[in-house]
Amino acid sequence: MTMIAAQFGLVSDDNGVLLAAAARGDQASWNELVRKYNALLWSIARGFRLSTEDASDVVQNTWLRLVENLDRINQPDRLAAWLGTSARRECLQLLKRNTKTTTVEELPELRDPAPEVDTSLLVDERDHALWQAVQRLSDKCYQLIRVLMADPPPSYADVAEMLGMPVGSIGPNRIRCLDKLRKQVEKLP
Amino acid sequence: MNEDELLQRLRAVASEVDGVPDHVNLAAEAALGTRRLDEELAELIADSAEHTPQLVRDASDIRMLSFRAGAVGIEIEIDDRLRGLVTGARGTVTIETPGGTTEAELDERGWFTADIPEAATVRLKITADDGTGVVTSWFTR
């Protein structure tokens, strides 16, 4: 498989191969890793309700960490969990820093910027309502649902590791949070 | 809608209104350019921000970080500026952000100071007089 891919100048889909090639400086392999996991990292940052600027910083820092550790990823098939865990750590550090630098003079809206998304792109009113309802979920549900919404969705084992939750709790929480979401949507006019 | 359909719908909505911005994809791709092969990585061995309880911290406290690679030690204090002490090597310090670099001189006792932007992610590269190099892991002010 790998040999065929190399022969036709294609990029592998195996994380171990991609990491090793990226460590040798192969940009195409690195870009493939970015393509595979950038949406997941973005979802994690947004799951912490970070602004576009803060989420961008978190995602970039996470990739910088991977570059630093290209030779040390022991379980390439669990790379999603490794990246997700790093991203979560970056989010927590950022929130801690923001809390620390916040002073009483600051305006409340500067302190807690809502993610800047353009919902006018949604032509279907039901999609609009659904998106509004997702935003109103509790922090814990919002985080989980945002991660499960990533494309492609990560495995439960990876989700558990990156969110610091027991793996057995992902399924039940998924049901509970989606149920809440459905009730929210039904309540909307 | 069952649960899978609901999630699928959400996934479609999210990619429409909150997809990964282009600049984030480009920055992620460019990150490979920060790979260093010639320098030894100095690992973070202590960070005061990791251990100090939130409640006793205030805006005036000083963040302290320690890095080590073999015989080379790098101690950093950050308040308004960054102040550092390099032990085990003499030479120059390069302060790197993903977007650029600035240089700082080590004084005769190994101290240096630098200005770094707030919330910047940086790393320090120590180029010793004998040509060997050490680079710290990335940290965010």
UniProtKB/TrEMBL annotation, chain A:
<dbReference type="InterPro" id="IPR014284">
    <property type="entry name" value="RNA_pol_sigma-70_dom"/>
</dbReference>
<dbReference type="InterPro" id="IPR036388">
    <property type="entry name" value="WH-like_DNA-bd_sf"/>
</dbReference>
<dbReference type="InterPro" id="IPR007627">
    <property type="entry name" value="RNA_pol_sigma70_r2"/>
</dbReference>
<dbReference type="GO" id="GO:0003677">
    <property type="term" value="F:DNA binding"/>
</dbReference>
<keyword id="KW-0804">Transcription</keyword>
<keyword id="KW-0805">Transcription regulation</keyword>
<dbReference type="GO" id="GO:0016987">
    <property type="term" value="F:sigma factor activity"/>
</dbReference>
<dbReference type="GO" id="GO:0006352">
    <property type="term" value="P:DNA-templated transcription initiation"/>
</dbReference>
<keyword id="KW-0731">Sigma factor</keyword>
<comment type="similarity">
    <text>Belongs to the sigma-70 factor family. ECF subfamily.</text>
</comment>
<feature type="domain" description="RNA polymerase sigma-70 region 2">
    <location>
        <begin position="33"/>
        <end position="100"/>
    </location>
</feature>
<dbReference type="InterPro" id="IPR013325">
    <property type="entry name" value="RNA_pol_sigma_r2"/>
</dbReference>
<keyword id="KW-0238">DNA-binding</keyword>
<dbReference type="Pfam" id="PF04542">
    <property type="entry name" value="Sigma70_r2"/>
</dbReference>
<dbReference type="InterPro" id="IPR039425">
    <property type="entry name" value="RNA_pol_sigma-70-like"/>
</dbReference>
<protein>
    <submittedName>
        <fullName>Sigma-70 family RNA polymerase sigma factor</fullName>
    </submittedName>
</protein>
<dbReference type="InterPro" id="IPR013324">
    <property type="entry name" value="RNA_pol_sigma_r3/r4-like"/>
</dbReference>
From TrEMBL, chain B:
<protein>
    <submittedName>
        <fullName>Uncharacterized protein</fullName>
    </submittedName>
</protein>
